[in-house]
Design brief:
The chain is of the alpha+beta class. It has 7 helices and 10 strands. Strands 1, 2, 3, 4, 5, 6, 7, 8, 9 and 10 form a 10-stranded mixed beta sheet that branches.
C-alpha cells in the first residue's frame, strides 16, 4: 500500500522591520486604513510593509518614528539611515535648550497624542530634509510635483508646536533672491503638505509646482478672481496662476537661515 506523502511549504520569516511596524499599529489600535492615512499612505501599502513585501521609504520611516514616540522612534529613524546624533542637529534655540537640560527631560512627540501637556518636558519631532530645491520667482526649481516621494538628505529636529501635522511636514532648500529679505538664497523652509486649499492661503507663503519651472516658493495672493505668486522683492514680477498650470503642493510654516 502506498502511503500518501505530505508537502509542507515553509513561509519566509517576516523581517524585523515589518514585525515592528505591525506591532506599532496594533499598539496604537489602528486599522491599516487609518494607520496608512496618518502616514499619507494607503492600506495596501501598510499591508505590504507588514508582510515584508515592500519596505517603507526613508521619509515614511521618519513619519513612523514620529508616530511611535520615544524609544521606538530611534529604531524607525535608524531604518531611514539616521543616527541619534542627527536628531541633535537642531536649530540654535533647541541646541541651547539641550545644553541646559538633560536629554532624559525631552520627549519625542507621538502624533495624535492630543493636547496632553507634559510638565518640564520639551517635545520635538523629526522632519526630513528633502534632497530637492524650490526656486524663488526668476529661477527654476526641481521638477518634483509631489514632496512625498522625494529623496531624504538628512533630518532636522524642531519643537512640536512648530509642526501642527508632523507626518506631513517636510523641509527643503530654497535658491534665488526674489523672496529676499524674508527668505534668502540658501535658506531651508519647513512646509506642511496638508495645507493646499487655495481658499485659505491668501497672503501665505507657499510651495507651488509648474511643469516648466518646477518647484517655486512665493507668496500666494488673491485679487478678486485672480490668483498670483507674488515675490517679496519688488524688482521681480508676479506670476499669474491658473488651475491647469500650477499646483499648490505645500504651505511654508517657518524657515532657517544663516545670520549675515
Amino acid at each position: 500500500m502506498r502511503q500518501a506523502s505530505s508537502t509542507f511549504t515553509l513561509q519566509p520569516a517576516r523581517p524585523a522591520w515589518a514585525a515592528k511596524i505591525l506591532a506599532l499599529r496594533e499598539q496604537l489600535d489602528l486599522n491599516q486604513t487609518v494607520f496608512g492615512q496618518t502616514l499619507q499612505s494607503s492600506a495596501m501599502a501598510v499591508s505590504r510593509w507588514e508582510r515584508g513585501a515592500q519596505e517603507p521609504s526613508s521619509h515614511t520611516y521618519i513619519a513612523i518614528g514620529n508616530l511611535a514616540g520615544d524609544p521606538d522612534c530611534w529604531y524607525f529613524w535608524g531604518r531611514a539611515g539616521l543616527r541619534n546624533e542627527d536628531v541633535m542637529k537642531v536649530m540654535p534655540e533647541m541646541r541651547r535648550r539641550l545644553q541646559r537640560v538633560r536629554i532624559q527631560t525631552f520627549e519625542i512627540v507621538k502624533a495624535g497624542a492630543g493636547s496632553r501637556k507634559v510638565p518640564e518636558t520639551q517635545q520635538i519631532v523629526a522632519i526630513p530634509l528633502l534632497k530637492i530645491v524650490a526656486a524663488s520667482p526668476g529661477a527654476n526649481g526641481d521638477n518634483a510635483p509631489s514632496l512625498h516621494d522625494a529623496p531624504v538628505e538628512s533630518m532636522i529636529a524642531a519643537p512640536k508646536e512648530w509642526c501642527p501635522h508632523p507626518a506631513s511636514t517636510r523641509c527643503l532648500r530654497v535658491k534665488g533672491h526674489s523672496m529676499a529679505p524674508t527668505i534668502c538664497d540658501g535658506y531651508i523652509v519647513a512646509v506642511d503638505t496638508t495645507q493646499t486649499d487655495r481658499s485659505k492661503l491668501d497672503g501665505k507663503i507657499v510651495i507651488a509646482w509648474n511643469k516648466d519651472t518646477g518647484l517655486m516658493v512665493s507668496r500666494f495672493k488673491r485679487y478678486g478672481h485672480t490668483e498670483v505668486l507674488q515675490p517679496e522683492n519688488p524688482r521681480y514680477e508676479s506670476s499669474s496662476l491658473t488651475a491647469n498650470q500650477w499646483n499648490i503642493v505645500a504651505t511654508v510654516l517657518w524657515w532657517i537661515g544663516k545670520a549675515p
